[in-house]
Amino acid sequence: MNKQEMESKNPLVNWRTVERPGYLGKRKEIEYARWNNQYGEGDWRLVWETAKGETWFYGDVFWKIYVPGYTIYFLGHLDEAEYLTKEFSYAYDKDMICRNEAFDPNALYEKTGRPNQFHNVAFNIALEYGLGLSFQGGRLIQVREGKPETSVETWPEGWRWSPGRIATVRPDLIPVSSTPFFKN
After folding, report:
1. CA–CA separation, 156 and 148 (whole Å)
2. What was the pLDDT predicted at 12?
3. If 0-12 CB within 10 Å is exposed, 13-18 middle and 19+ buried, where does residue 35 land?
4. How many whole angstroms separate alpha carbon 38 and alpha carbon 44?
5. Where are the domains of the chain?
6. What is the C-alpha to C-alpha distance for residues 44 and 179, in angstroms, rounded to an integer?
7. Nearest Cα to 116, choosing from 4, 31, 173, 11?
């Protein structure tokens, strides 16, 4: 079996952990450029490493942590779920998005020049598909934490549902930060 065939069967066979960058935020493009320069374009990738040492890709984290987390939260807070779906048409994070992007986990993930926006997609999917509630309202809700140095009154209307305020469904698996893997 050649190297390409081996990697297609086990995409991490030749990779090693070299950094734990944590939340990238506004540093995303700068860090990507640095890694491309340091390791070579296509010779690095971001993955999540669980507390058990498992490697999870974005889809794993989205579908196994974010969507179930919001679904379980809203099952325990049906009054909030009903309020949100009656008053709003869907949620967004940082930038305004269209409905298709609001329900597509890959629409704004790893897009150059755009912040990764996916917790709001998990929020939307949990309400519509997890709980079977349709958004009926005429306005969007921004689901994002406010800046710590500002008054809560100035925070986005949906700050209460930002991902850091929703309990994880698998605290035993979640490490402190995400981990990129790089080729040897």
Report:
1. 12
2. 53
3. buried
4. 10
5. 3-57+174-183, 58-165
6. 11
7. 31
Q: Which DSSP letter does residue 77 get?
A: -
Cα 42 to Cα 156: distance, rounded to the nearest angstrom: 37
Q: Is residue 54 scored above 90 in pLDDT?
A: no
**Contact between residue 165 and residue 155 where contact means Cβ atoms under 8 Å apart:** no
Q: What gap in Å lies between CA 50 and CA 175, rounded to an integer?
A: 6
Write out 40-71 in H/E/C secondary structure: CCCCEEEEEECCCCCEECHHHHHHHHHHHHHH
Check if the beta carbon of residue 119 is closer than 8 Å to that of residue 66.
Answer: yes
Closest C-alpha to 82, from 134, 125, 119: 134
107 versus 127: the higher-pLDDT residue is 127
Q: What is the DSSP letter of 126?
A: I
How far is residue 2 from each of residues 8, 9, 109, measured CA to CA in Å? 10, 11, 31
Give CA 24 to chain center in angstroms. 12
| Residue 140 pLDDT greater than 90, yes or no | yes
First to last CA, the chain: 18
CA–CA gap between residue 60 and residue 105 (Å, rounded):
11
